[in-house]
Amino acid sequence: MVHNAGKAADSSRSTGSISRRSILQGALAGAALTAAGSTAAHASDVREAPFSSGTGRPSYRVPGQTTDCHMHIYDPVRFPYPLPTATPPPRATVDDYRLLQRRIGTKRTVVVTPSNYSTDNRATLDAIAQLGLKHARGVAVIDNTFSDAQLHDMDEAGIRGIRFNLTRPGGAGAELIRPLAARIADLGWHVQIHMTAEGILENLERITDLPTDLVIDHMGRIPGTTGTSHPTYAAITGLIDEGKTWVKLSGVYHESHVGPPSYSDRSTIGAAFTRHAPERMVWGTDWPHPTASRGEVPMPDDAAMLDLFASWVPNQRDRKRILVDNPEKLYGF
């Protein structure tokens, strides 16, 4: 099941103004303006974005309306974390994220509530509002205390799915996957899971034959050391073949023993998924890369991640399908 695209009307409007400048006369002035424009364009090419190594752009022009289907907002100044930890993630705001969008060329975004916020989705809903419903959707974390009226309001605000993160504490446990899937089915939402490869196998019965679509984070966290020979790969492709499961081509650094820049062990898994069913893949940055912020892996270069994705998907039609068409179907853009 996918969300009705008819709900995608943008309820926000933006206004702007164009400042007037004095008209400079003469060829010298014209040349100066041309040079200034060239310098500004060059500066735009190399402007840093927080929580992303490197400053360059992808080596190719991404399709128009390319969608980053997995990122988080952390704004403890405005929305304090309900679950304090020893290493709370640093602040990463919508304005910070817009710098990344300018650098890598993405236009649309799916904001995912991270585990640090448990079932407090205010930062996610605020980010959707700032980005606008024309360009943003969200995935929330809920439990069985949420009312139907709350779910309806969240749907109107751009939420299109609920997430279960079993890799870190926070939010609902696996025992609520099926009951909550039944609650959200009529909204056209999906269930998104973040589990280790072993966790997927342990919970396979819970995630099979749901009344909603299923979205699997970070390529199922299949270890690079085992690759597609891991039983979780066969389990996920089996779910895909039933026609209601999607895989996020994100978090390639999770479970990679090779590491940057090639992540060749996990790249093999990503390429295999895209060959198997490009029509069931979506792509995401996982910005601001909380695993890297905690020092567990090197901070990735998001432009290089798009180049890596392109190496998995050499066919431009399939590339557009994954970056543009599939998100339109899944999230109702």
Report what the structure shows.
The chain is α/β, with parallel strands linked by helices. The protein has a single domain, classed as Alpha-Beta Barrel (TIM Barrel). Helix content is 37%, strand content 12%. The chain has twelve helices and eight strands. It has an eight-stranded parallel beta sheet with strand order 1-2-3-4-5-6-7-8. The radius of gyration is 20 Å and the shape is globular. The relative contact order is 0.16. About 13% of the residues have low confidence.
* Most strands sheet: 8 strands, parallel
Q: What is the H/E string?
A: HEHEHEHEHEHHEHEHEHHH
CATH class: Alpha Beta
Identify the CATH architecture: Alpha-Beta Barrel
From the structure above, extract its key features:
333 residues, alpha/beta, TIM Barrel, eight-stranded parallel β-sheet, 8 strands, 37% helix
